[in-house]
Design goal:
This protein is an alpha+beta fold. It has one domain: 2-Layer Sandwich (GTP Cyclohydrolase I, domain 2), CATH 3.30.1130. The chain has three helices and five strands. Helix 2 packs across helix 3. The longest helix is centred in the last third of the chain and has 15 residues.
């Protein structure tokens, strides 16, 4: 069974949406991830080089998202997960992507996906 490292509520932004007004300026997004990995070696050595570095993962998510431009949050979520697998050693990812204020009458809309290697 995998251990879970979680990073919650990374506040970032991207140009994202299907409407013309959404394509002219970045919009706020909130991203949370649960990363399935084996933490035993990091726990045994007490050395960050043996661990998933939370700061590096968080900065990667922020940087990737800010540089992206998609119409659908589903596309951003899938491509972000693929990029995380390419750059880090986790075995599974649960990603939750929220787009606050996207639809009147709601506080948030979003997508949650789970992928494994």
């Amino acid at each position: 069974m995998l251990d879970i490292i979680f990073i919650e509520n990374i506040v970032t932004e991207a140009v994202i949406g299907i409407h013309q007004f959404e394509k002219v300026a970045p919009q706020k997004l909130i991203i949370s991830v649960e990363l399935g990995t084996d933490i035993r070696q990091a726990a045994d050595t007490d050395d960050v080089k043996d661990a998933l570095n939370y700061d590096e993962v968080s900065r990667f998510i922020d940087d990737f998202t800010r540089k992206s431009q998609y119409e659908l949050i589903e596309t951003l979520a899938e491509n972000l997960v693929k990029a995380l697998f390419e750059n880090f050693t986790m075995q599974s990812i649960k990603l939750r992507l929220q787009k606050p204020g996207a639809i009147a009458l709601t506080q948030n809309v979003g997508v949650s996906i789970y992928r494994t290697r």
